[in-house]
Write a structure and sequence with these properties.
Blueprint: H1 11-14, H2 30-36, H3 43-66
């Protein structure tokens, strides 16, 4: 039996249904975020929290690079 050929994924097909400029996926965990707080969490909160976390990571990375390090440390936050 012959092996199945893999379909080529075009850039247009790979980005279908995704908003322009939006991150591919969240870096935060929705379930862990919800479990960490004692109240309800709106669906819009997760995207805002993810953006906050990405911004904090970018700033920490810039600080580490400024200090000629390739490792993020707690003081970078």
């Amino acid at each position: 039996m012959a092996a199945k050929k893999k379909k080529k994924v075009t850039k247009k097909a790979a980005t279908k249904g995704k908003k322009k400029g939006a991150p591919a996926e969240l870096i935060i965990s929705k379930s862990r975020t919800k479990a960490a707080v004692g109240c309800k969490v709106s669906s819009e909160f997760y995207a805002a929290f993810d953006e906050f976390a990405r911004d904090a990571l970018a700033k920490a990375e810039a600080r580490a690079e400024k200090n000629k390090r390739s490792t993020l440390r707690p003081q970078d936050l």
